[in-house]
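Severity: low
Component: inverse-folding endpoint
Summary: output formatting inconsistent between runs
Steps to reproduce: submit the following structure tokens with default settings.
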């Protein structure tokens, strides 16, 4: 049933609600970070998006760093790669790490792969049914295995493509991804090259999670929507649906049901119109975080919401030709207090032991000593990555952005 809309929120209030809900409203802990702190961030966010780009750091590691500061990335590897697993991979917000309980809530997506998956996955049972059966038998006998290891068993009959462009998946890889999407196999973790190690799902999920009944779609979507609104604090229907890539109609129905039991409430937000706020969300008086954000951080991944909250149009420009890039190749928003104060194109030059600032642009640094704050954060990030220094410019000294001069001076002074 329709629910009446409560009083409105200003953009400033919505922004501070969003920062607190995301765990980005205050400074990072000064105590050592262990499994409990990592689990706390995962519980707050509900999902860590995975991406293979490693120009700075892996995408799933960055939201934890932004909220916890320097920590041991092996904590994540252990959580996803050793029993009993606290993180498992699933198609959630794209490829993601999620808690095992959330994996079960996504079962309807796996069952409905004909509607939920892309074309090459939907076609697998028709085009490669014999290979699928053989791959499944191989994993049962020898898993966990990477796609390359599985392909080696099938290369004679199904050689790899050498032409064209794109992912160039082998038949073995395609069969594995079908089995992964449909939940017949799972990721037992990643190897040093960040390749999935596929295994039977019953050897990956914790026994208690396996034994629990899988919820139906309506109950599962309602749980996912509740997680989304709690992590967002406040957001439009589009924002909430995007969090786990849900369709809008079932998301809207779930929001109405959650509103009836007092979990969420409709609000008006300046410039947004109707939005949804978690009833447990609060507005901090001040915010004091300082953090580099991944392009795949839940705070920034829905770009329209980011633009409305921070008055900043930001796009990842990896696939944009270099002459047409506005900000740089792999640009990280720099959060300072309640503002995204700068955009910084960073590259971890691991061979040279240098964190390179390829570009640095001021966006909204009013009220801050922005060069000093950014320089301090870059030194912390370099130390976390095991890099000895921070340098402005690539190996040839090329760099761009209105912040590079003051930043370089600050780094020299430090």
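Observed output (run 2 of 3):
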């Amino acid at each position: 049933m329709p629910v009446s809309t409560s009083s409105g929120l200003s953009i400033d209030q919505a922004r501070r609600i969003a920062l607190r809900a995301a765990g980005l409203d205050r400074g990072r802990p000064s105590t050592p970070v262990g499994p409990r702190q990592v689990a706390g961030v995962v519980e707050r966010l509900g999902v860590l998006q995975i991406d293979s780009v490693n120009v700075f750091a892996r995408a799933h590691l960055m939201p934890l760093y932004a909220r916890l500061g320097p920590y041991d990335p092996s904590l994540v590897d252990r959580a996803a790669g050793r029993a009993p697993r606290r993180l498992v991979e699933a198609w959630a917000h794209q490829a993601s790490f999620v808690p095992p309980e959330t994996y079960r809530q996504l079962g309807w997506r796996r069952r409905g792969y004909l509607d939920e998956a892309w074309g090459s996955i939907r076609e697998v049972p028709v085009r490669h049914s014999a290979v699928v059966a053989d791959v499944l038998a191989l994993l049962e006998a020898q898993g966990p295995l990477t796609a390359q290891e599985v392909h080696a068993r099938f290369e004679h009959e199904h050689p790899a493509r050498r032409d064209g462009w794109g992912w160039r998946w082998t038949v073995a890889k395609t069969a594995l991804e079908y089995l992964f999407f449909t939940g017949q196999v799972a990721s037992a973790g990643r190897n040093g090259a960040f390749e999935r190690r596929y295994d039977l799902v019953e050897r990956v999920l914790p026994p208690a999670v396996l034994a629990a009944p899988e919820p139906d779609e309506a109950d599962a979507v309602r749980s996912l929507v509740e997680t989304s609104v709690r992590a967002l604090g406040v957001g439009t229907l589009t924002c909430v649906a995007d969090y786990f890539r849900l369709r809008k109609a079932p998301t809207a129905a779930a929001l109405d049901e959650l509103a009836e039991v007092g979990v969420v409430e409709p609000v008006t937000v300046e410039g947004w119109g109707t939005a949804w706020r978690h009833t447990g969300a609060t507005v901090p008086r001040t915010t004091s975080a300082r953090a580099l954000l991944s392009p795949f951080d839940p705070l920034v991944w829905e770009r329209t919401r980011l633009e409305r909250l921070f008055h900043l149009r930001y796009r990842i420009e990896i696939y944009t030709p270099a002459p047409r890039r506005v900000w740089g190749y792999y640009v990280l928003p720099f959060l300072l207090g309640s503002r995204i104060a700068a955009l910084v194109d960073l590259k971890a030059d691991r061979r040279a032991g240098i964190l390179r600032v390829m570009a640095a642009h001021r966006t909204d640094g009013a009220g801050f000593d922005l060069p000093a704050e950014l320089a301090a954060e870059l030194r912390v990030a370099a130390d976390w990555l095991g890099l000895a220094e921070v340098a402005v410019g690539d190996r040839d000294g090329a760099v761009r952005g209105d912040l590079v001069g003051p930043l370089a001076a600050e780094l020299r002074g430090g």
